[in-house]
Write a structure and sequence with these properties.
Blueprint: E1 2-7, E2 14-17, E3 47-52, H1 87-110, H2 113-125, H3 133-144, H4 147-151, H5 157-169, H6 197-202
Antiparallel strand pairs: 1-2, 1-3
Helix pairs in contact: 2-3, 2-5
């Protein structure tokens, strides 16, 4: 591909015209000379320079200046190691889980109020909540109607934050106004919360 560049009296001014070979590709210039500079007391001159491209077109017609570097072979092999699976051990773990589920369920159902909400948070954090989905949904549905009673005079930021997180996680709308009790009249959090890292982290 060839292009024609026309220069004026200043080096910063030029006009490039793509050749007829390919009108859609931007020209890449390789200058063979510089324009003549016209002085104020002499008439201005324009010089036409012929430029050529230094890159060769690729298979799709576009220019490429990519340089490939030969990389060393990988230190990792292509072999996939198999992991032995002891079916009897997995069966033993399954039986142990089934044995513990009724015990955990009894602990959950015997808890009341805030203690049960905290246990839901614990089960979710441990990834065990799916074992007790029905019990959790029934508990939250009933507890949501008693939310004002549960949150009344509660000044523990950790407890309020856990309640807020659990109910919001399971789709119950609880207003963020429950945290207003921990703010000053100017909207800032109370200075006493600096001594409550557990509450701040839960928030």
């Amino acid at each position: 591909m060839e292009t024609i560049a026309v220069f004026g009296s200043k080096l910063g001014f030029h006009l490039s015209l793509p050749s007829r070979n390919n009108l859609f590709l931007p020209p890449i210039f390789k200058f063979h000379g510089f324009p003549l500079v016209a002085f104020p007391d002499k008439p201005r001159q324009h010089v036409c320079l012929k430029t050529t491209t230094s890159a060769s077109p690729t298979s799709d017609g576009q220019l490429s200046n990519r340089k490939f570097k030969k990389l060393p072979p990988s230190e990792w092999t292509d072999h996939f190691h198999s992991v032995p699976l002891d079916v009897s051990e997995m069966d033993a773990l399954k039986r142990e889980i089934e044995t513990l589920k009724p015990k955990v369920k009894n602990m959950f159902m015997s808890s009341q109020g805030t203690e049960r909400i905290l246990m839901i948070y614990l089960l979710v954090s441990l990834g065990l909540a799916y074992h007790f989905e029905d019990e959790i949904y029934d508990t939250l549905k009933e507890s949501f109607t008693k939310m004002e009673e549960m949150m009344d005079n509660e000044e523990d930021l950790y407890i309020v934050s856990i309640h807020f997180w659990v109910f919001r996680t399971y789709g119950h709308h609880i207003s963020s106004d429950v945290f207003t009790r921990f703010k000053e009249s100017n909207g800032d959090f109370k200075e006493t919360l600096k001594e409550d890292p557990r509450g701040i982290l839960s928030l």
